[in-house]
Amino acid sequence: MPFAENVQLVGYDDLDGRSGFKLAMHEVDERFYxxxxxxxxxxxxxxxxxxxxxPRFVRWLPGPxxxxxxxxxxxxxxxxxxxxxxxxxxxxxxxxxxxxxAIWDLADPEDPQILGKWATGVGGTHxxxxxxxxxxxxxxxxxxxxxxVYAVVDIDxxxxxxxxxxxxxxxxxxxxxxxWSEDDAAKITSGRPLELGMHTxxxxxxxxxxxxxxxxxxAWMRAGFVILDVSTPAQPELISKLPVYPPLGSSIAMHTxxxxxxxxxxxxxxxxxxxxxREPVNFAGIVDVSDERDPVLIxxxxxxxxxxxxxxxxxxxxxxxxxxxxxxxxxxxPCLQPVGDYIYLTYFNAGLQVFDISDPxxxxxxxxxxxxxxxxxxxxxxxDLVTQFEDVLxxxxxxxxxxxxxxxxxxxxxxxx
Length: 417
Prior knowledge:
Elements: E1 3-5, E2 7-13, E3 20-28, E4 31-38, E5 43-48, E6 56-62, E7 67-68, E8 72-75, E9 78-85, E10 100-105, E11 113-118, E12 135-140, E13 149-154, E14 162-167, H1 182-189, H2 193-198, E15 209-212, E16 215-219, E17 225-229, E18 237-242, E19 256-260, E20 265-269, E21 284-288, E22 296-300, H3 315-318, E23 342-346, E24 352-356, E25 364-370, E26 389-394, E27 399-404, E28 407-414
Antiparallel strand pairs: 1-25, 2-28, 3-4, 4-5, 5-6, 7-9, 8-9, 9-10, 10-11, 12-13, 13-14, 15-16, 16-17, 17-18, 19-20, 20-21, 21-22, 23-24, 24-25, 26-27, 27-28
């Protein structure tokens, strides 16, 4: 039986035997469609969740061969998916793949039609941001740069997308003759080899920017939390930065930054990378950006502990990864729940953790849902076949959708005590 507090299981979809990764939602005439990017093969699943207790699997939409397409966003009747090479160890690496973004028309939400593609020229994109309108804000690998940089792509003509702006951490532009500072070079070479094998260098934009107004809130891995002025998309400018590594975080010491503009706060977190906590401590926390030129970390979330009667004495000893990964990101979509006093955060083998931040100086755990371990393997990781919750999305009705490395989509409901 799952271990849960203030969270209950409402529904489940097996995704026709595939594993889900990132999530997006589209509402049409009060019908809700969930788009689930697959983890272990290119493509995505479409699931109608109008009745969350009885989800309807609509179809599998295959992606380009040899390509990782683990990211998806939906807004303004368009869907944006990523394309990048498969990371060694995460599938069958192919010498041929597509890279960049694909733009889809959702006039028929059950049958997306591709409108156009944008190619980065090398390496593709990872998690991107699209909240509607003219611009996709991407974490992109561009020719001449080390790692992912911030790229602004104009999709006003979706058949002919165009790169219009970019920003990078000093040292990333190798073709331009840049070199790393002494401090940054030390951050690149520190840490265990397993960490560095997945992301090189660990000074690049990982989970994409989160754009609110004319500001982009960026998670720049070991470089830290970065705020950019994007009032002129062609010329993003640095406003401020807040490093956390060392001592906090893995190679992805800064994974996500979600702003709460009405409260002048940003919720940040790292990503756990190594099994059994073999890395610097991972974290989630709150940054005060009331003075955006001097962001201040004001609190850290409490670390989840194994509940009484759990199958292991601690999450670190359980196997698989333990630590934060993805937050619910509404990205101004009316079908999704805005961020309020509760932060929904996937925590790998600790499942879904819900944090109450009504007092931002003292966050507390308000609920959790830790699923049973999967019974059959759908992908290569983790080494130990244990729960590994990946992404989370909350619709405007309060339904919570979560994915797992070796399972389908679980639909949950949180009820505050």
